[in-house]
DNA sequence: ACAGAAGCTTA
DNA sequence: GTAAGCTTCTGTT
């Protein structure tokens, strides 16, 4: 190695653990072998290899090695027997991946370095030193803080998962000390994961401050008596020896007697066939393809290479010897392909969940179909562009014959109520897909001014051919987020049934796991394929062009691929539904809601422009007056909307009493802080709070809402997301009609603008205390159930139980506290949160909670049981079987864990309530029709439904609505607590609620 | 032009 | 203490 050379050292062991926890679990499709960390590792190495040959990337490695821990016993254990003693065994599905990652390294033609008695970190330190002495530079591929002590002028670190370089400034920024003081810092803070003791009570912030003050650890220990804080001084004096031992534990060894020299690390060009053989065995289809392209190798001609898999506990060590078994992959994958994958001829004529036989367990079948959907290649050139009716009819016949067709609409807008249909794509088998351009326009520079491109089937003619297919009860239509396509097609007089929605399948199966339910992440996760990005063909930002401007060849590749991906996803996901027992959640809570919401969105609600305009004027006046007063009081003009400037003025220039802390070092100017200051008699903060309220109302509601009035329908059409929340609630956007103000008189006025059409009324029907009722039922709390059965004031009852005060003549403050506790329970209560809510000391909040649990021991049992269940299974369930996953419930970080525990407790309650109102919505239209009523649902706000109906039917409608809502849980679940619904009718939402 | 923080609205 | 979405400001691309 010489000056100018660059050594890359990959911290293999560190990467394994980080990738395992950071990446979604991934198993080999053919046999379920866990390979998530291996996949991450291979992708990372490949990316580094690509950069290595890209001279523009700046840093070009000439030498390369991957370093591993050999075993957990090292020289440090002699120094301190407890070192890494509390480390638990690695997760079961990680064990086989240790060996696989070493084999991956070899497939990449990279040195795989490990040494008995030393950690990977020591080897890295030693090689970095050798490289430095030879005049070369080193990049350590890791983000482990233990390695940061090595950073210097010729040694830097690179975090491959965040794509971030770590040099001296980054270390200082993160830890407050330069790299050379990291050893002292870690000696003070210790490390609970590795069981390095450190000094109790000293964290990174304090340690950095002490080192800043004293210079280094020895000086600090020698002059510890000078420390002012009593507890801190005592702890450092008492634990000086522990700090010295810790320093030796964290200090990396730079003189390990290594066997290989740097000359063995010279980077070799990739061996395409060898690498592809390994990747094929792992079934990393996407990476295999990329490697084949880059190395000019014909992947199809290469056999999957045998690998050895060790499930045993010894898999930590070198991967020779004991228990190696040949991988089952090639045979299983072949069998799966034969079973039902390859072409149209083998497409099952009904849904795969129906086609399982006695020979296949659901899981086997799921694996086989998944393998088939994944094994077929994505070939954009094979997609067909349909330009005439005869071809279209032939495809419709093919789809009808297949019985299953995936389809997707391409439009000019994200808003389905304004979107123009531009084209339609469909797929009848993996790899067999087509696109029908309908309304592509020529470029805008054209003098013809966006005339239709030639050779397209007219929309009307195409729909006449497609309508029978889309409405054919014997052909299953599959889409991703079908509600969008349904709204678009409904506007053209076409219905879509029967159907499946891959987004909803994923939501039901994997709700709460990391990664969204959009098509791109699903394709990545299940098919290992990255589809063409929308922005790559239609641009983004100022380069954005509507889909109707996209070149038809590009549009074909993009649109047909979407249909192809959707079909393959369905083949992967649908069988998992039955395998996991989630069919009824999908079929009863998700799928039927799609047409219901599509209709609600299409109906929209009338919003009175004039009312909003008048309100906007009033708000502007009020805000302007406050602005003048604020500027006068502050003595200068500034941007009131800037929390930064406001903080500087209030707490800096004006010197108001110590504002509360903030996250990024800024003064907090939250309403809470300003209210507190106002209570102390300061004039300005009150006015800021008022100003914020007025400007918020103006910008978010009175000014924004008119822009959402559809020019054609003159109504506002929100968009409901079915798969956006973790708990099963809906969300509303564009505009969000689930957060229209109500609490303050000023805000409430916004609701007067939501009105019924002439001769009509709005009806608002809302569940009373639904989540507390669900709690009473699920946790089986006798007193609560009795209270709800008797119809008494639940918060007063709680207060009476807790504080032994009669309900008659109860002070409102006592009831307020009980109410906060009741809400707290639903939110997974913590003393910290309750104290905040009630502005009382944490100890007092703690006492309240204790008292509450004494009075209602069943609640504590319920909460403990929920946490335990979630910890065991990784999810919680609503009473209707909806699963909500909390993959971080077992986090070693106590605050992360506590957060997940609270969320899981809340999810059972919030999720059950969400399921109940979903059931009501699904039944509502039929019930209204059966009662010969013309009322229809317009909006849903979590526990409230808004209807519009003709005035004369109001009285008859309310009992029907209440009946459907109050009995919505039946018969799937029989609630032991009655549900109660309040309903009112009026001309506006304000009066009706 | 975009991303993240801060702040505020709802159930 | 739970669950969302939107606007403004601010600093980076």
TrEMBL record:
<comment type="subunit">
    <text>Single-chain monomer with multiple functions.</text>
</comment>
<dbReference type="GO" id="GO:0003677">
    <property type="term" value="F:DNA binding"/>
</dbReference>
<dbReference type="InterPro" id="IPR020045">
    <property type="entry name" value="DNA_polI_H3TH"/>
</dbReference>
<dbReference type="Pfam" id="PF00476">
    <property type="entry name" value="DNA_pol_A"/>
</dbReference>
<feature type="domain" description="5'-3' exonuclease">
    <location>
        <begin position="5"/>
        <end position="268"/>
    </location>
</feature>
<keyword id="KW-0227">DNA damage</keyword>
<comment type="function">
    <text>In addition to polymerase activity, this DNA polymerase exhibits 3'-5' and 5'-3' exonuclease activity.</text>
</comment>
<dbReference type="InterPro" id="IPR036279">
    <property type="entry name" value="5-3_exonuclease_C_sf"/>
</dbReference>
<dbReference type="InterPro" id="IPR036397">
    <property type="entry name" value="RNaseH_sf"/>
</dbReference>
<dbReference type="InterPro" id="IPR043502">
    <property type="entry name" value="DNA/RNA_pol_sf"/>
</dbReference>
<dbReference type="GO" id="GO:0008408">
    <property type="term" value="F:3'-5' exonuclease activity"/>
</dbReference>
<keyword id="KW-0238">DNA-binding</keyword>
<dbReference type="GO" id="GO:0003887">
    <property type="term" value="F:DNA-directed DNA polymerase activity"/>
</dbReference>
<dbReference type="GO" id="GO:0006302">
    <property type="term" value="P:double-strand break repair"/>
</dbReference>
<dbReference type="InterPro" id="IPR008918">
    <property type="entry name" value="HhH2"/>
</dbReference>
<keyword id="KW-0378">Hydrolase</keyword>
<protein>
    <recommendedName>
        <fullName>DNA polymerase I</fullName>
        <ecNumber>2.7.7.7</ecNumber>
    </recommendedName>
</protein>
<dbReference type="InterPro" id="IPR002562">
    <property type="entry name" value="3'-5'_exonuclease_dom"/>
</dbReference>
<keyword id="KW-0548">Nucleotidyltransferase</keyword>
<dbReference type="InterPro" id="IPR002421">
    <property type="entry name" value="5-3_exonuclease"/>
</dbReference>
<keyword id="KW-0234">DNA repair</keyword>
<feature type="domain" description="Exonuclease">
    <location>
        <begin position="403"/>
        <end position="579"/>
    </location>
</feature>
<dbReference type="Pfam" id="PF01367">
    <property type="entry name" value="5_3_exonuc"/>
</dbReference>
<feature type="domain" description="DNA-directed DNA polymerase family A palm">
    <location>
        <begin position="747"/>
        <end position="953"/>
    </location>
</feature>
<dbReference type="InterPro" id="IPR013520">
    <property type="entry name" value="Ribonucl_H"/>
</dbReference>
<keyword id="KW-0235">DNA replication</keyword>
<dbReference type="InterPro" id="IPR012337">
    <property type="entry name" value="RNaseH-like_sf"/>
</dbReference>
<keyword id="KW-0540">Nuclease</keyword>
<keyword id="KW-0269">Exonuclease</keyword>
<comment type="similarity">
    <text>Belongs to the DNA polymerase type-A family.</text>
</comment>
<dbReference type="GO" id="GO:0008409">
    <property type="term" value="F:5'-3' exonuclease activity"/>
</dbReference>
<keyword id="KW-0239">DNA-directed DNA polymerase</keyword>
<dbReference type="InterPro" id="IPR019760">
    <property type="entry name" value="DNA-dir_DNA_pol_A_CS"/>
</dbReference>
<feature type="domain" description="3'-5' exonuclease">
    <location>
        <begin position="383"/>
        <end position="578"/>
    </location>
</feature>
<keyword id="KW-0808">Transferase</keyword>
<dbReference type="Pfam" id="PF01612">
    <property type="entry name" value="DNA_pol_A_exo1"/>
</dbReference>
<dbReference type="InterPro" id="IPR029060">
    <property type="entry name" value="PIN-like_dom_sf"/>
</dbReference>
<dbReference type="Pfam" id="PF02739">
    <property type="entry name" value="5_3_exonuc_N"/>
</dbReference>
<dbReference type="InterPro" id="IPR001098">
    <property type="entry name" value="DNA-dir_DNA_pol_A_palm_dom"/>
</dbReference>
<dbReference type="InterPro" id="IPR020046">
    <property type="entry name" value="5-3_exonucl_a-hlix_arch_N"/>
</dbReference>
<dbReference type="GO" id="GO:0006261">
    <property type="term" value="P:DNA-templated DNA replication"/>
</dbReference>
<dbReference type="InterPro" id="IPR018320">
    <property type="entry name" value="DNA_polymerase_1"/>
</dbReference>
